Structures are given as C-alpha cells and as structure tokens.
From TrEMBL:
Gene3D superfamilies: NAD(P)-binding Rossmann-like Domain. Signal peptide: none annotated. GO terms for cellular component: membrane. Pfam families: adh_short. Residues 282-312 are annotated as: Disordered. This is Short-chain dehydrogenase. The keyword Oxidoreductase applies. Residues 7-195 form the Ketoreductase domain. It comes from Burkholderia cenocepacia.
C-alpha cells in the first residue's frame, strides 16, 4: 500500500503516544481514521488535533477496552458501515508490567495478556474480513524489542510481545498464501517517548531486586526512551508502504535484534551480568538520594496508546 489517500485506518491506543502520532500522520496523508482508546479524555484530544489539521478527513471514535472481544467486533463493523470500508488496522494499544515470575500475581499476568495479546487477536480477527473486502488491506501489529530480546523482570511483557510476533508472522504467511490483497507487518519499537513507564505496573517484588523503589523504577525507565512517537509513526508508515514483514524502530531495537540473532543463547548471560551491575548501582545511588540509571531490562520498550490510562 503505497498511498494512504482516501484509505480508512482503524487505530487502537489512539489516545496518546504512537497511536496519536499515527492518527495525525495518516490524516495528513488524506487517510480517514477510526480511533479507539479506553481513555476517553485522551481520545477526544486526538480527535480534536486530527480535525484541526485535516478538516476534510472523516474521523470517528470509540471508547473501548481492546481485551473485550464483542466490543472490538462491534467497533470493526461500525467502522466499516460509517466509512464504507476499512483498509488498515493498527493494533497498537498495550501496557507494561515489571515483576519477577515467582512473585507475579495472576491478576497482573491476566491483565497484560488480555490487553497486549488478546487485544491484538481481537483486532486482527474483527477487521480482517473488512480488509479483505476492501481489496487493499494491511494489518499492523505492535510487538516490541522485547518480542525479540528477553529480559529479567519482564516475563509477562516478554511473553505477550513474543506472542504477538509469532501470531503476526504466521498471519503474514497465511495472507501471502491466500493472495487476497491483504498483508501484515509486525512492529518492534525500542524505547519510545510516551507515558508508558509512568503508567506501568511495577510489582513490589522488584524493589530491592531490580529497583530501589517502584517510583524510582518508573522515573529512571524513561531515560532509555530515545525515539519520539512522531519518528516511530513515520518509520511504521514507511514500512507499511514498503510492505515490510518486520519494522524495527530505533537504534536500541536494531542493536537488540542484532544481539539476539548473533548471540541467541549467550546474550542472556550478558544481560544478567549487566543487569546485576546496574541494579546494584541504582540501589546505591538511591540510598544516597541521587537518581541512578535504571537497569537496561527495566525500560518498558513499546508502542502503545492509552489503554485505560495505563500505558503510553
């Protein structure tokens, strides 16, 4: 899909961050947009911005939870009815969780799986028939650097993002076999400057293990966010135009991908050594009252929009 003019795109997590940036850039390209987010306030602000910069573009909005299957299917059907077609679905909404496996609450694991994985599944399955009917469709699912590269303390997040990667790669292969006019791309952002760190869940079991305090962890995570949401959106849309199977966003994502490919087993030992050193330094600096860099593992590299105000 080389041209977005007069196409129709649906975007989850559109209330802020990458979702908002995608909505703005697509609208500037003449693409009509259907925007969804659980945060109604952020969603309304995105709608206002889009209408101001692209008054001739149709904009519809829906406040919903991507983990609710019926709501997602209803939104997909309503989008097709209101706009006449749907060409693109950006399954962008996501949340972050930092916890040890031993201390992780099942409720937290279910929460992140429901949004990060099932939200992508629901969005893909709900919109796919409409994309096929359009004759020119594309599914864009947001995984993460942590869908390629595992880190301690991020097992729940890693699991969902690895799952999105496998799901999307399989989907792309099926669509290629079908030759149905629809394609798929898996997006792997590194650290994106959004509010996902402040809105993430940091379990108490991380305190003393990886971070000095829950808030210290959130505050220092953000120091690793090196790519703006606008730059990330531009990279994603360029990848869609080129029909790429995988889009890596940021130097950190490219470095992590390289390490996982070149040192698929050995990188894990290197991560443990680096994380131990940085975690110890964070605790020492916190004890002295001086902010310290967070352990590399802790940066919640992602996408996302504002699913319930709990992520970027």
């Amino acid at each position: 899909m080389r041209d977005f003019a007069n196409k129709v795109a649906a975007i989850t997590g559109a209330g802020s961050g990458m979702g908002r940036a995608l909505a703005v850039q697509l609208a500037q390209a003449g693409c009509h947009v259907s925007l969804a987010d659980k945060n109604g306030v952020g969603l309304a602000e995105t709608e206002r911005i889009v209408r101001a910069i692209a008054p001739n573009v149709r904009v519809s909005t829906r406040v919903l939870d991507v983990g609710e299957r019926d709501a997602m299917f209803a939104w997909a059907d309503d989008t097709a009815k209101e706009h006449g077609k749907v060409n693109l679905i950006f399954n962008n909404a996501g949340v972050a969780l930092s916890s040890t496996i031993e201390g992780m609450e099942y409720s937290d694991l279910e929460w992140i799986v429901n949004i990060n994985f099932w939200g992508v599944v629901h969005g893909t399955k709900a919109f796919l028939p409409h994309l096929k009917a359009s004759g020119d469709g594309h599914v864009i699912n947001t995984s993460s650097l942590f869908g390629i590269f595992a880190q301690p303390g991020m097992s729940g997040y890693n699991a969902t993002k690895f799952a999105v990667r496998g799901f999307t790669e399989s989907l792309r292969q099926e669509l290629d076999m079908m030759k149905c006019g629809v394609s798929a791309t898996c997006v792997h952002p590194g650290g994106i400057r959004t509010n996902i760190a402040q809105a993430s869940r940091v379990s108490k079991n991380m305190v003393g293990f990886m971070v000095a305090s829950e808030q210290q962890g959130r505050d220092t995570f953000e120091k690793f966010f090196i790519t703006t949401a606008d730059d990330a959106a531009r990279t994603i849309l360029a990848g869609v135009r080129k029909n790429k199977r995988r889009v890596l966003i940021g130097r950190d994502a490219k470095a992590g991908d390289w390490m996982a490919r070149v040192l698929p087993a050995a990188y894990q030992a290197l991560v443990v050594l680096a994380t131990r050193r940085e975690a110890a330094r964070a605790r020492r600096e916190a004890a002295r009252g001086t902010p310290a860099p967070a352990p590399l593992h802790a940066a919640t590299y992602n996408n996302a929009g504002n699913q319930g105000g709990e992520q970027s």
